Amino acid sequence: MAFSEFRPLNEKSLVEYIKSVPSLSSKLGSNLDELTIKEVGDGNLNFVYIVIGSSGSFVIKQALPYIRCIGESWPMTKERAYFEAIALKEEGRWCPGHVPEVYHFDRTMSLIGMRYLEPPHIILRKGLIAGVEYPLLAEHISDFISKTIFYTSLLYRTTTEHKSAVAEFCGNVELCRLTEQVVFSDPYKVSEYNHWTSPHLDLDAEAVRNDNALKAEIAELKSKFCERSQALIHGDLHTGSVMVTRESTQVIDPEFAFYGPIGFDVGAFLGNLILAYFAQDGHADAENDRKKYKEWILRTIEDTWNLFQKKFIALWDKHKDGPGEAYLPAIYNNPELQQLVQKKYFEELFHDSLGFGAAKMIRRIVGVAHVEDFESIADASKRASCERRALELAKLLLKERRKFQNIAEIVSAIRKVQ
Length: 418
Fold this sequence. Notes:
- It is a single chain.
- The chain has 15 helices and 12 strands.
- The protein is of the alpha+beta class and 418 residues long.
- The strands form 4 sheets. Strands 1-2-3-7-6 form a 5-stranded antiparallel beta sheet, with helices on one face. A 3-stranded antiparallel beta sheet has the order 8-10-11. Strands 4-5 form a two-stranded antiparallel sheet.
- The longest helix is centred in the C-terminal third of the chain and has 32 residues, at 335-366.
């Protein structure tokens, strides 16, 4: 332990801290007084520092006892850093190729030291805004989701192992409650934290608050989010939680991790790709109408789901005679029954994913925290037009998700929104 009690670090005190931690200082070279330190946190929750020395680098992430973008008026547990650290280690265990390695964790300081994803890695959301294609994105993300979810579910684990892990992550209750508020509650009522592109979307926001059918569906999804502990989920798997190059995909920031419904992660990622799709018209110009790029996003949406389903079922088939207690081999021991339960499992998972994805889209348009995809569109009228189309699709998906049978139908529905 470097420091005996918590205190927020700055560039100067961080050097003092690093010098006291061999697992960090040993990665930087001999001259620790000549470090390059840059704070790069997005401003929402935490401090994030890039630390570069003469022979190495890493990232330091420190949680604050409140939500950084709101201030001390919205307290938030520092313990989220603990859950992020153990989630990173667990995800890295099952999918090391797409999770940054953790070098150091200090529970007292709520601080994680981990691999620095050096340039040209950028946040996926920024790449989507810039119109950059990532040919391996669907392959990599489907790999991450399928492995981290399968290997932490009852399809692979015993109920004893599963309940122990669920109990551990139940401590991340404050971050779960934050999601419950900002995703499943605030957008559907008058809240001081809500905002939207006003006055353009005033009536649209009011329509969300007055839509009884929408509220009935969001209640069902909130219940699943609170009550269902299927697997270890990232809990905040949007395009701002992924760093990419054309060859690399790394999933970061699992501080919202807990044992929850699988569809929440799948839906969050797909929903954010859909938001990126609808934002493209706001970034189009005379030189690039973005039509080709929109088609790439649609292909990525379709490929991500199809590859995820294919890989998840392959893992299930590979381990069907293993220790997992969801479907005991003594009962589900013939191919016909195996295919039947898999079909039923994925029908529900698909509809869950659509619902959760839609909920994540709605909260990014009329809730507290928006996305740069839309916010970076300077023309408010143009921005509102893009947001309105995304909102209309999200409402459709949330209310009618059970009518869709496959991801191709979703892509078709996206194309139809004018």
